[in-house]
Automatic annotation (TrEMBL):
The gene is pheA. Pfam families: PDT (PF00800). It comes from Vagococcus acidifermentans. Keywords: Amino-acid biosynthesis, Aromatic amino acid biosynthesis, Lyase, Phenylalanine biosynthesis. Its EC number is 4.2.1.51. It catalyses: prephenate + H(+) = 3-phenylpyruvate + CO2 + H2O. PANTHER family: PREPHENATE DEHYDRATASE P PROTEIN, PREPHENATE DEHYDRATASE-RELATED. It is an enzyme of class 4 (lyase). This is Prephenate dehydratase. Coiled coil: none annotated. Residues 201-278 form the ACT domain.
Length: 285
């Protein structure tokens, strides 16, 4: 299969993708929407994109695209430990404290807020498409006084010097990645063991019914369905209109989830089933 991922080479997403699909052809894409569009237009069979992090929460571009535009499903999830490193071009290693800009993906910058405000109180941060993109940019622009926050793998890939290790605000920092495709497949490597089944749905109440969210939650709760996450995102229609992402864990009884979806629909809710999938812990290699 052809597998898209948020690249370039050296990204956290690449590490997760290589463990999920060790024998497939991996193709980097520069943004999360371009990874998911590549699935929709048949350029790749599957794409792997980040969805949530311990410190910074939901990766909104992923959730918004999955809800508003994606016409396939989540087929799996990987959970990986994330350790962020500060790196510079080797020529600037001695004077790294003098950098005037710190580049990374917004999720990674947010994961290292304490370090950045303590070490570089007056310096600018600059958002890049991914952590590895920032590392590559630092490599290609050695004349600029810049640093990247990225994985150790990106430092190796682009020949950068790590000047501060493990700079994320908490050590137990993890990111979830979704595996998305149009058609189901069962080609996961035997090296991975599922830690359980999950179902993700997105729900919007078509009219502003009082107690609408309460009704949605009741349909799930009286069936004993165990929720691990609920989050609202703007519908992008009018101010004050939202959809809700709901993750259901230990969802062995998929029939129960189907019945809950039917009940929510009868109550006036519009439900999009984002996917029913296995969750795989992967290591940060
Ligand atoms: O894969 C990467 O390297 C990314 O830049 C993306 C991303 C994310 O969006 O969460 C992936 C894992 C980390 O949480 C930080 C950044």
């Amino acid at each position: 299969m052809k597998i898209g991922y948020l690249g370039p080479s050296g990204s956290f997403t690449q590490m997760a993708t290589q463990q999920l699909f060790p024998d497939d052809e991996l193709l980097p894409h520069s943004t999360i929407p371009s990874c998911l569009k590549a699935v929709m237009n048949g350029e790749v069979d599957v794409s792997v994109v980040p969805i949530e992090n311990t410190i910074e929460g939901t990766v909104n571009p992923t959730l918004d695209f999955m809800y508003h535009q994606f016409n396939g499903h989540i087929q799996g999830e990987a959970i990986m430990q994330i350790s962020q490193q500060l790196m510079v071009h080797p020529d600037n290693a001695a004077g790294w404290r003098q950098v005037d800009r710190i580049l990374s993906h917004p999720q990674a910058l947010a994961q290292c807020q304490e370090f950045i405000s303590d070490t570089f109180p007056d310096k600018l941060t600059e958002a890049t498409f991914s952590t590895a993109y920032a590392a590559k940019y630092v490599k290609e622009n050695r004349g600029q006084a810049i640093a990247a926050i990225a994985p150790k793998r990106a430092a190796d890939e682009y020949g950068l010097t790590i000047v501060k290790e493990n700079i994320q605000d908490i050590s137990q920092n993890e990111t979830r990645f979704w595996v998305a495709s149009l058609a189901p497949f069962n080609a996961y490597t035997k090296n991975l063991t599922s830690q359980g089944k999950k179902v993700s749905i997105a729900v919007e109440m078509t009219r502003n019914v009082p107690g609408g969210l309460h009704k949605i939650l009741s349909a799930l709760s009286w069936r004993g369905l165990d929720l691990s996450k609920i989050e609202s995102r703007p519908l992008k229609t009018r101010l004050g209109e939202y959809f809700f992402l709901i993750d259901i864990v230990n969802a062995q009884e998929l029939a129960l989830v189907q019945l809950a979806i039917e009940e929510i629909t009868l109550l006036g809710g519009k439900v999009k089933l984002l996917g029913e999938y296995d969750v795989f812990p992967v290591s940060s290699v």
